[in-house]
Amino acid sequence: MRLAGEATDLLQRYRWPGNVRELEHAVERAVLLSDDDVIQPEDLPPEIAVPSFDDTNLAPMTLEEVEKHHILRRLEECGGNRSEAARQLGISRNTLARKLKSYGLAPDDGQDGSQ
Questions:
Q1: How many CA atoms lie within 13 A of 99 on its CB side?
Q2: Model confidence at 115: pLDDT above 50
Q3: pTM of the full predicted structure?
Q4: At what angle do helices 93-102 and 63-77 cross, to 10 degrees?
Q5: Each residue's pLDDT tens digit, 75-98
Q6: Is 1 helix (H, G, I), strand (E, B) or coil?
Q7: Which CATH number fits domain 1-45: 3.40.50.720, 3.40.50.300, 1.10.8.60, 3.30.360.10?
């Protein structure tokens, strides 16, 4: 396994509030989720793949990046429950599924993305 350049950048920029176990778990998760021998940003946990909001990285974010970050945070807070995340976001499950698909974070299986 190897890291794509963008994945390496994300890992280096992350503040790592936990200990080395957090890094270990993030890499283990990425290895399991990777479709091939290259770990991509979408294989990383959402808190690493999407920069957190702070004064140092909010300004360069596009509107799409801010939206993606907000959606992924809400999904994480809901324990991955897409129906609840969509309800809290004020959007339909279909809209949430389309957005996740557009971010490359959901399989294209023709389902509406509900759990």
A1: 21
A2: no
A3: 0.47
A4: 120
A5: 888 888 999 999 999 999 999 999
A6: coil
A7: 1.10.8.60
Domain ranges of the chain: 1-45, 50-115
Q: Are 93 and 82 in contact (CB under 8 A)?
A: yes
The encoded tokens of residue 6 equal 């963008």
pLDDT, one tens digit per residue, over 17-63 is: 777 888 898 999 899 888 899 998 888 888 887 765 554 555 577 88
Helical ranges in 1-115 per DSSP H = 5-13, 20-33, 46-49, 63-77, 82-89, 93-102
Domain covering 50-115: architecture: Orthogonal Bundle (1.10)
Runs of H (alpha helix) within 34-62: 46-49
